[in-house]
Design brief:
The structure holds 3 protein chains of 3 kinds. Chain A is α/β, with parallel strands linked by helices. In chain A, 41% of the residues lie in helices and 19% in strands. Chain A has helices at residues 2-23, 63-83, 103-112, 125-138, 167-181, 195-208, 226-235, 246-258, 274-280, 282-285, 308-323, 329-337; strands at residues 51-56, 90-95, 116-120, 142-144, 160-162, 187-191, 212-217, 239-243, 264-267, 289-292, 340-343, 346-349, 361-367, 370-379. In chain A, the strands form 3 sheets. Chain A has a 7-stranded mixed β-sheet with strand order 7-6-8-9-10-13-14, sandwiched between helices. The termini of chain A are far apart. Chain B has a domain at 32-264. Chain C folds into 2 domains: 1-39; 56-177 and 218-387, Orthogonal Bundle (ABC transporter involved in vitamin B12 uptake, BtuC), CATH 1.10.3470. The two termini of chain C are 24 Å apart. Classes of the chains: A alpha/beta, B mainly alpha, C mainly alpha. At the A-C interface, helix 1, helix 3, helix 4 and helix 6 of A face helix 2, helix 3, strand 1, strand 2 and helix 7 of C.
Amino acid sequence: MIRSKKTMRGFAALAGMAVLSLTAACGGGDDTGSDDSGDSGSAASELCGKNLAFLGALTGDAGALGQNMVGGIKLALQEHNDENADCQIELKEFDSQGSPDKAPALATQIINDDTIFGLIGPGFSGESLATGKTFFEAGLPSISPSATNVTITQQGWTTWHRVIGNDDAQGTADAKYLTDTAGATKVFVVDDGQDYSKGLAGTVKEALGSAMIDEDQISVGDTNMSAVVQAVKSSGADAVFYGGYYTEAGLLAKQLRQGGFTGTFMSGDGSQDPNFVKVAGAQAANDAVLSAPAGPAPADFAASGLYATQAYDATNIFLAAIEDGASDGESINEFIGSYSGDGVSGPISFDENGDIEESKIYAYFVKDGTMDVDNPEVIE
Amino acid sequence: MDFGALFGSLDNFLSFTMGGLVFGAVYALIALGYTMVYGVLQLINFAHSEVFMYGTFAVAWMFIFLHGTESVTWSLGKAAPILVAALVGAMLLSAAIALLLERFAYRPLIRKGAPKLIALISAIGASFALAEAMGLRDRFADKLGLSDNLENYVAPGKARDVFSNPVTIQPKGLFEVGGYTVSDVDLVILAACFIMMIALDTFVRRTRFGRGIRAVAQDPETAALMGVNSGRVVQVTFLIGGLMAGAAATLYMMKIGSTRQNAGFILGVKAFTAAVMGGIGNLRGALVGGLLLGVMENWGSAVFGSEWKDVVAFVLLVLILLVRPSGILGESLGKARA
Amino acid sequence: MSAMSTTLSGIGRRWDGVVDRYNALPKPARLGLVILFAAFVYLLPLLRPPILTTNNIDFGGVMFSVAAFALVAVGLNIVIGYAGLLDLGYVGFYAVGAYTTGVLTTYHWHWPFFLALPLAIAVTMVTGVILGAPTLRVRGDYLAIVTLGFGEIIRITVKNVEWVGASAGIKDISHPNTIGAAPNPPFDRGGMFDVPRLQWDGIIPSLDRDHPTAVLAFGAVDAIPYYWVILTALILVLVGDRLVKSSRVGRAWEATREDEDAAELMGVPTFKYKLMAFALGAAIGGLSGAFYASGQGGYISPDSFPLLLSMLFVAAVIVGGSGNRWGAIVGGALVAYLPERFREFADYRLLFFGLALSVLAIWRPEGLLPPRRSRRAKAVEAEIEALEEGALEGSTHA
């Protein structure tokens, strides 16, 4: 250990010398941060012409979700740019393919890009955990439209916010819906083993207590659910809760119904997508309950898909910060921390951890072969 | 561990087994593609999973073409005419993809006498490219100015997302065995699998061309000297693999109903496992391996929980190979006489 | 089509010529070239040469993954290239190394990184022996699917075992200790001194003092110090690889690969040597995994180790030239670098990557940098063929 450290130090000196002789210059000095902190008095226009960044999956298996978010962001920016011809804000997109491995290098690129003053994202929990420290150390404020893992906001990263209720809030509400509203007494809980899904399903299990009779776990990409279907049937469950995304949720709902299951089928926001109904088929999807920490988008909302409203709201918070006169990372971050307003996804304000303060959980229903996105029920 | 979940009641046991058999039949049909190519060329045709994936899309497209996009639920009988058309479409498309693979990813390498491993890389590359091309079909349609005409087929902006057959086929219970209801869909899948297996087996065993395939599998050089056109044999091998993958795709879509551009990968790995389990290069081995893998996955799910089912499958594979180093029924297409 | 392939093979021949000329140089000149080249490689992320530098993703971070991939490829080259064993589950060892590091430095204990590193290597090596012992009795292509299975078993196991974080993975993994002043985030990165990097306006370089790298500060905002450490590890491994390859062990591997039965008859305990190759390869994979775990992101989860990564590792070795350590490095570098360099093609980059793999395979079946023995063999073959052609002149040659 000691020896290796010594070697390292020797090597470092060597490398350093090589650099010095080659570039004939010495960095030194204290100007480390990448954000040049200008005078906050010189009005909002300082950020005009600069960019917001989006970090999330745009291609790859989860690319569709990222595209939804970009749709929401672009809508907000377009509205802003149309109204403020003298203050154009553009979007720089960084495609992580949803992978925590690619995200850190992209995060470094973002913090070294002096034209970027804020981040919408990261899209998923994994990449948030892999990059949170980078953004925090560089002092770049971020608002995620979709990363719901509970632990992200417990890391002490004060620049990190989200405009979506975390998995705890949703899981508790879902369990309540199942027992109180749907009247289930024997709930079978299934998840797909991903971090998001396990977190959500875990909270549901905990909140259900003795009303949970059994559990199982499939994996992403599975299509043969016959084993789970049989386990559900032989357990005599009167409700199934699934934590995961719409593809597997649809397949599970379909095969459960075909296998003769007649109880309640419920899932979370990951499944609240029109494709759930397409995968399950109209008949099997009927009466499914899908919860989401977001109300219905207004009728004239021009972007579509899961998380588009949250992305739209997140962008508008940054734009409001500009209008308010914030000019650097610190003042934007302060503005976000004290922000309070009504977005298209619901009322928004943040607690000291960066979690959204009030998150209403809505239950959406599938009726007559379509998901009724306009008339959800608030789970109290 | 919960053996009671599996063996607790006959109904349970049969359900787990039957569900496994049905999926195993799909594995078996895909495994044929791996086994045929391996038998003749001793190459792992890594891109065969994409041949299957294109077939699944062909099925969904055929339903959209002949029925429309309205989401409906039909019985098997009502869907049968379109299903037959879809079967033809899927077999044609899959076979075409398989032949393209042979022509562009393999033939140049075989002709150069390149090492086997490099063919694997070529196949991995082709597999990536094919899956990505399917995921980018909306862009291609856009470039060609066909976005509006093909909207329902290419799903603009959502080409990478799951793609579903608008017609859901509702299985109907036919008869009961020990409390378990056998459905018409399951029965058709199993029967189709067996019929195609027997037909293929007969083809390889009885026909002149089949003899050519066996000859090349046993000794390509001697076969060539005896006047067998080995290039043609290789083509036909790929063609058969493609046709079977197309059939598997139709059965799969009948049961599952949805696909996506990366749907081939996992099934491909499973089918390849099945082929090795049964004895790669052996047609009947593919059937045995496929069915066994399907059943063991479901049994494993019942006993250990679904999260461990792949572990159960792979551990079983290792055990089988330790006891029988060349698979359950042994290797060699050439020796597949019985 | 044929014109293109002629140009391609022309490039190939010219490249072989470069390799031959290098090999013909006297030893001191070769050493000098190597040192110059090494210095250039170390400074690459600071020099940021145009064209080579990635535009839409941090170049330092990309160079770190390039080095990590190269290290993995060198390890896998021992298994595939030297011993001739097709391992499709190599990502499993990468995962074992990463998880051992995560558990030792963060999740259960708080060892310093450089103390955990040797143990991570040891644990991975033992895993290699445990998995290899039953697996290596299976021959040839069966080995591919069995190793693939083991890779999946490792991934599924870590996904479901709470002791290693299950599906949530391990987050905030401790970085190696910063050498120099201790960092004090968010604004003070610590380290001994700062080094500026270059920025280029076309072909005119200038100093960019706004984005310096702190030497040797291991924080979350800069990947370059991590790059330097993993590059050093790569160089050490290369030296070791050279020693082993030219030893008795290396010859035993060669004999086993070319003809296992003959080797066994000549008294080479082939199983023992195969197991050794498997374990050594595993150890290097584990080493790379350890650096990955404690790298800039400091986050690992089961999803970081998909089956597909194994395929990419194998592709790296074979594209580079199975059996040649430099080939493996080039292959590893390309597989990690190309998709990032061509990010502006966004959606199309994986399509092009797949096509590029196929084209490369067909264009140079023996890899970009084939090992010396196959180039020798090829030359001999060409000679024989020329003789045969001469003898058969006039008659139709099939």
